[in-house]
Amino acid sequence: MSAHQYATVPPSLRQRRRAVATQEIVDAAEGHLAENGLHALSLRAVARGLGMTVQALYHYFPNRDALVTVLVAKAYEELADAVTAAVGDAAGEPAELRFLAATDGYRRWAVTHPERFQLLYGAPLRHYAAPAEGPTTRAMRRMGEAFQRELFDGFTTAQLAAADTRTLSPALQAHLATQFPHGRQTLPAPAAALLMSAWGHMHGMVVLEAFGHTSFIGEHQAEIYRMAMRDLWADVHRRIPSCTGAAPAAP
Asked: Is residue 78 in a domain?
């Protein structure tokens, strides 16, 4: 059998049944999270909700961490999909509007799915550590790359390297230089610092809303958020020279 023929062989009945059962377990776990919270999650509780024994569930997920990894990766992918779709809806618009669309997509998903957002960014689950360079890391990077692309669209590597971020320590510059890909090149340390600062500002506002800390603002939360994101965009771009060799405008 050729490699092409092998690649097109449909899954067997056993594989299809396993896929269906696995999806049922993941759906049940998400329902359990929504009702009881992350820290009450256990394979026994999920199995009980499905009317199966925990021993049977072990055939699909050998431990709780394996199930949590799937849930976290799925939530990250859905959040990344929301951000990507929002940017797609703004295709053809100026870079600023695409960036604002990305931040709106991030916020909308978080406030619409607060339990899954808390799974990603709430109190860490005790004794759980995501696998290094595993599916959760890949999904998170996909979302980060979308924000990086829209925030720095149109700038050259030289411009990004000349961004005004005050004085970064040599140790921090060396670390940042290895963390953020920029197309085929490494994102310069000053731009990487700006990206992390911008993400922290955006994410912090979304956390406050998704976790209920700004409910006193009521229906005006979206307006406050968009104002902050416009100011964020302006501040980041004020720090990047408009052409190679030009100094950034004073903040």
From this structure: yes
